[in-house]
Design brief:
The structure is a single chain. This protein is α+β, with helices and mostly antiparallel strands. Helix 1 (18-26) packs parallel to helix 2. The model has no long low-confidence stretch (mean pLDDT 75). The chain starts with a strand and ends with a helix. 9% of the residues are buried. The protein contains four helices and four strands. The protein folds into two domains: 3-64; 86-147, no CATH class.
Length: 148
């Protein structure tokens, strides 16, 4: 598979596969005036000089000026930043879920061991369960406050 560097308005994009370049062209991020080269070559050419990219460029009906190019590059950067932020948030949420699950599992096992050691009336058991729930809620609230 070939990989390319694309230069749009003095900004390099890449390395990009052929399919990635075609997708960016079809979405309007790479104009016909962009420069392009294969990774292992030294010479830059107009992106429309590559047959595979020229076909995609012909499908577009966009007037390319400097403002359009700059706006498309900013949009592309914003999209990358948004997806990076989403990934970071998802990792944090997954980590928090793992910690909560571990805490609950430990708490349940600890309570089961304590219950095995004593004989408790049903009312006392109910009171203990309610107290345990309150403690777990307090822990969760403290974690939420720390993360905010």
């Amino acid at each position: 598979m070939k990989y390319y560097l694309i230069n749009v308005n003095n900004q390099d994009l890449g390395p990009l596969s052929e399919s990635e370049v075609v997708e960016l062209i079809s979405r309007g991020y790479i104009p016909p005036i962009a420069r392009c080269k294969e990774i292992d070559q030294d010479s830059w050419f107009s992106v429309k000089e590559f047959e595979i990219f020229e076909k995609e460029l012909k499908k577009l009906d966009i007037t390319w000026d400097e403002d359009t190019i700059i706006a498309k590059l900013k949009e592309l950067d914003a999209h990358k930043t948004k997806s990076q932020i989403k990934d970071a948030i998802q990792k944090k949420e997954n980590h928090k879920k793992d910690i909560d699950t571990e805490d609950e599992t430990y708490s349940k096992k600890s309570n089961e061991l304590q219950l095995d050691k004593t004989i408790i009336s049903p009312q006392t058991l109910k009171n203990l369960e309610e107290e345990k729930q309150k403690i777990n809620e307090e822990k969760k609230n403290k974690r939420k406050k720390k993360h905010l």
